């Protein structure tokens, strides 16, 4: 939903043909299940635990790859497996219900996506450009308040987008189908949970043997040279990180081969040329990326903005939809008002939370109060737009909305790097969490869940995620100088920091070839987005993904190779054994990611406490 790595969505929902009031009445009579358990105490507790674990996992993966992995599909399968295990141990008596799983998954999603929406990209970029770590507790409050404001922003548009227009929200639809399947056929649910558990154990063992006992090498180079140097020096090697293979398996194959193409062009073509011409003086990941960052970021920003502009109808519908939402008596309640969140909750939440955001912006990031007063309502408006785009395309456009905000604040607060970055964090965070809640509300709509319970569930998840993400960041990255290195590439942080520097101080200090590369990247990003939109359907799979190409220019070539392998294996299974792929690809990929990343956190803890040596 919020990243290119989201698993393939389920079947699209056909556009509704009945009147809005009829659709809501029909839902109340035939779908709504008011007497089934939704948000129970055990769902909150287990959801917060799973969400916190997935937040840790996403944090690890994000700084390795630049992507935040999907949460909801993994969470509902993991929840089912957890309760089946607890039942077999006789620790719980009642099996997990479908609507209870939906509420649990909503909690987990609110926590697990705390790394997305620019949160960690902004935090990492902030440390890269200022080297000043903001106070611990205020940063927890910062992330919690931004996410909560996004949750409240979803309230006034839920009925318009889901009840009345019936937007697909493909990840939400796929999650509903998954919950139905694992609860209607417990054997199938148990099978997926087993695959997830086995893959998780395998990933954890690999991480332990590699990072704790150092039995497995981190990288495996090939006995081949390029420009007189081993391929591994150009970062072109095989990496023993199954988290990368798992991440690749959750991507589309197009994104996977685009990563490989981009990695080869960057490290086998561009980098040797840069060295030969004296533009870079050493062969190292940091030296290469210091130049390739600029065309890579340009591709990402240009393609994101172009794709967003193609959705001008979505933007227009967002504005007109808001007019209908706030127009008194716009929709016949047909009894549904007693079920939905009251309309007054949004203005109440806005009045309470907005001053906190403005004060924190001024205190932590030296953003003038007047600029903060502009940022918050602008971010909420963009959150409405992001929610509609997500509902129609399944991609939350943070890559477009973030740079737009950075550009605006580069103009109104020139030279303020921290304010430039964190103002974009406000936009991305509000947009992501509004879209995230609406995605899970779509799942609940299809299953007949209680919307208010899902609203509460999302807030529980937001609190858990905010409490986990800041201390976890400080734990695994105690020294911010490692960001942007080969161990922690942090490509999204590198891009955000670069864009902020460009918008705040200009690009005149860059090498002339880098400035040229920016314009080439901008043109390529626009061209790829145009091809995506207008190329014949048969040719579109052959057009490189701008996300894949752009990210490939700011992560090591070894990461590109590993993620391509994951995407290729998953694609081969989908083509040759589709039934087996449906059962295994998402659980196994998610298990590999969770197992290695969580073990990586454990190893980091053991190193901090002196149990293991670095």
Summarize the structure.
With 614 residues, the chain is mostly helical. 71% of the residues lie in helices and 1% in strands.
How would you sum up this structure, described in words?
- It is a single chain.
- The protein is mainly α and 614 residues long.
- The chain has a domain at 20-200 and 333-398 and 414-482.
- The protein contains 23 helices and four strands.
- The strands form two sheets. It has a two-stranded antiparallel ribbon with strand order 1-4. Strands 2-3 form a two-stranded antiparallel ribbon.
- Helix 2 crosses helix 18 (451-476), helix 3 (72-88) crosses helix 4 and helix 14 crosses helix 15 (369-393).
- The radius of gyration is 23 Å and the shape is globular.
- The two termini are 36 Å apart.
Report how far the terminal alpha carbons are from each other.
36 Å
Strand content: under 5%
Describe the sheet with the most strands: 2 strands, antiparallel
Task: Compute the CA-based radius of gyration.
Answer: 23 Å
Q: Number of DSSP helices?
A: 23
Main sheet: strand order: 1-4
Pick out its properties.
614 residues, two-stranded antiparallel sheet, 23 helices, 71% helix
Question: Layout of helices and strands, plus pairs?
Answer:
Blueprint: H1 20-30, H2 41-65, H3 72-88, H4 98-112, H5 119-130, H6 136-153, H7 155-164, H8 170-184, H9 186-212, E1 219-220, E2 225-226, E3 229-230, E4 238-239, H10 242-249, H11 253-276, H12 285-310, H13 312-326, H14 345-365, H15 369-393, H16 398-412, H17 417-447, H18 451-476, H19 491-505, H20 512-534, H21 546-552, H22 557-576, H23 578-608
Antiparallel strand pairs: 1-4, 2-3
Helix pairs in contact: 2-4, 2-18, 2-23, 3-4, 3-8, 3-9, 4-17, 4-18, 5-17, 5-19, 6-14, 6-17, 6-18, 7-13, 8-9, 8-17, 9-23, 10-22, 10-23, 11-21, 11-22, 12-16, 12-19, 12-20, 12-21, 13-15, 14-15, 15-16, 15-17, 16-17, 16-19, 17-18, 17-19, 22-23
């Amino acid at each position: 939903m919020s990243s290119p790595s989201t698993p393939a969505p389920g079947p699209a929902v056909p556009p509704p043909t009945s009147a809005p009031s009829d659709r809501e009445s029909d839902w109340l009579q035939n779908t709504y299940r008011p007497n089934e358990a939704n948000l129970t105490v055990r769902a909150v507790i287990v959801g917060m635990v799973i969400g916190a674990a997935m937040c840790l996992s996403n944090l690890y993966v994000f700084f390795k790859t630049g992507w935040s992995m999907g949460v909801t599909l993994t969470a509902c399968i993991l929840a089912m497996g957890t309760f089946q295990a607890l039942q077999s141990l006789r620790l719980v008596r009642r099996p997990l219900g479908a609507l209870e799983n939906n509420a649990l998954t909503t909690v987990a999603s609110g926590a697990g996506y705390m790394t997305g929406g620019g949160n960690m990209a902004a935090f990492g970029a902030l440390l890269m450009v200022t080297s000043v770590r903001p106070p611990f507790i205020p940063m927890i409050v910062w992330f919690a308040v931004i996410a909560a404001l996004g949750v409240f922003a979803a309230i006034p548009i839920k009925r318009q987008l889901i009840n009345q227009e019936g937007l697909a929200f493909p990840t939400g639809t796929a999650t509903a189908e998954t919950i139905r399947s694992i609860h209607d056929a417990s054997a199938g649910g148990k099978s997926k949970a087993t695959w997830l558990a086995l893959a998780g154990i395998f990933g954890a063992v690999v991480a332990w043997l590699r990072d704790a006992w150092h039995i497995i090498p981190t990288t495996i180079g090939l006995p081949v040279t390029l420009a007189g140097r081993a391929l591994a020096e150009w970062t072109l090697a095989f990496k023993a990180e199954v988290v990368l293979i798992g991440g690749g398996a959750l991507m589309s194959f197009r994104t996977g081969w685009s990563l490989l193409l981009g990695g080869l062009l960057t490290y086998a073509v561009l980098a040797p040329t840069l060295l030969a011409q004296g533009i870079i003086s050493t062969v190292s990941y940091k030296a290469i990326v210091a130049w390739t960052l600029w065309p890579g970021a340009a591709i990402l920003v240009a393609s994101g903005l172009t794709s967003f502009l193609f959705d001008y109808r979505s933007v227009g519908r967002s504005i007109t939809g808001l007019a209908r939402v706030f127009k008194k008596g716009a929709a016949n309640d047909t009894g549904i008002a007693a079920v939905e969140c009251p309309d007054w909750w949004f203005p109440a939440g806005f009045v309470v939370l907005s001053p906190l955001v403005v004060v924190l912006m001024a205190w932590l990031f030296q953003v003038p109060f007047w600029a903060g007063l502009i940022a918050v309502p602008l971010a909420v408006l963009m959150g409405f737009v992001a929610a509609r785009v997500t509902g129609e395309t399944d991609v939350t456009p943070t890559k477009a909305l973030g740079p737009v905000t950075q550009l605006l604040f580069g103009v109104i607060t020139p030279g303020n790097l921290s304010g430039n970055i964190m103002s974009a964090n406000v936009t991305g965070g509000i947009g992501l969490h509004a879209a995230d809640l609406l995605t899970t509300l779509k799942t609940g709509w299809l299953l007949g869940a209680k919307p208010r319970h899902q609203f509460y569930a999302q807030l529980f998840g937001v609190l858990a995620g905010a409490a986990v993400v800041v201390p976890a960041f400080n734990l695994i990255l105690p020294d911010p100088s490692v960001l942007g290195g080969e161990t922690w590439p942090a490509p999204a942080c590198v891009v955000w920091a670069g864009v902020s520097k460009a918008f705040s101080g200009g690009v005149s200090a860059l090498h002339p070839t880098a400035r040229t590369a920016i314009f080439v990247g901008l043109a390529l990003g626009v061209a790829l987005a145009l091809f995506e939109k207008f190329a014949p359907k048969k040719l579109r799979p052959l057009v490189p993904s701008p996300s894949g190409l752009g990210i490939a220019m700011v992560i090591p070539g070894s990461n590109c190779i590993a993620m391509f392998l994951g995407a290729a294996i998953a694609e081969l299974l989908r083509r040759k054994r589709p039934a087996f792929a449906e059962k295994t690809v998402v659980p196994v990929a998610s298990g590999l990611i969770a197992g290695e990343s969580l073990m990586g956190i454990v190893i980091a803890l053991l190193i901090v406490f002196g149990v293991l040596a670095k």
